[in-house]
Amino acid sequence: xxxxxxxxxxxxxxxxxxxxxxxxxxxxxxxxxxxxxxxxxxxxxxxxxxxxxxxxxxxxxxxxxxxxxxxxxxxxxxxxxxxxxxxxxxxxxxxxxxxxxxxxxxxxxxxxxxxxxxxxxxxxxxxxxxxxxxxxxxxxxxxxxxxxxxxxxxxxxxxxxxxxxxxxxxxxxxxxxxxxxxxxxxxxxxxxxxxx
Length: 196
Prior knowledge:
alpha+beta; three-stranded antiparallel sheet; elongated; four-stranded mixed sheet; 7 helices; 196 residues
């Protein structure tokens, strides 16, 4: 089984961990994914429906059901599209609150700057790991609203100046004049603006 999600998909950590730890399941992330296709060995559905209780109760949804034996071409096209999405996505092999493991050969293939920024953004925003304290540069969880480690936050809190000049980018740890108000270097700030 394959589960391909958009990094912006809101999924709780227990559910994500359940899918990743399931030996029968491969979990992928693909940026800009909006389609919903549910397919197995016999039947498939392409739909606007999200697998949320809210969608079931509050939205008018529609979709197309197709069967492998009756709609051969449509079934094969949908299956091939899902397989292609998997090939061009990040596969998550394992993760905990402290770190993650993604498919290494995929990282090596994706060496252009857009793909690297996509991978980094996925790691930060979905797994909430890979950030740095903007004052001391120590590794910490990624959170643009809390870019300081506990120790540095305690010192910063005495003055609470959101524009106070700090030393590091929260995303890449490059030395750059940042602040609590703008914790990213220019490169990561522009990447953030381009994607939100």
